[in-house]
Write a structure and sequence with these properties.
It is a single chain. With 135 residues, this protein is mainly α. The C terminus is likely disordered.
């Protein structure tokens, strides 16, 4: 099979880190780029999901990189105990419910097709999979 050469400019740090990861899974940079391009051609779309973080995520990432608002645990049991206490207080459940509600409203505003919420043919209510937990 005839091949062509591609030249790409990347920072030395990105190249070195990428080569290290690829080596650990048994691929060369050339093979990885080839796989990426094959997927691009086969799918006829970008083969990776690219997301732009929202303001809340950006704040959380910044705070964590600065070491703010972090909770550490000395073992898994301590973490599970903390999570259990938070859930019993209803904080996680309420927070999750609010986030699911906000996400559903955002999706509804962005997509007007109705494909986001699946409904049962027998019932006119959203399927249990899509319903937010009750507070």
């Amino acid at each position: 099979m005839k091949t062509q050469t591609i030249h790409a400019r990347v920072s030395p740090q990105v190249k070195k880190a990428s080569e290290k990861i690829l080596k650990s899974i048994g691929l060369t940079m050339s093979e990885a780029i080839g796989l990426f391009l094959k997927q691009l051609a086969n799918r006829k779309e970008f083969p990776l999901e690219l997301r732009v973080p929202n303001a809340e995520t950006i704040r959380a990432l910044k705070a964590s990189s600065e070491g703010k608002n972090l909770i550490s645990y000395s073992n898994v049991e301590e973490l599970i105990k903390h999570l259990g206490n938070e859930y019993q207080k209803g904080q996680n459940r309420q927070s999750l419910s609010k986030r699911l509600s906000a996400n559903a409203k955002a999706r509804k505003g962005n997509r007007k097709t109705g494909r986001d919420i699946k409904t049962s043919r027998r019932r006119k209510t959203p399927s249990p999979v899509m319903q937010a937990p009750q507070a």
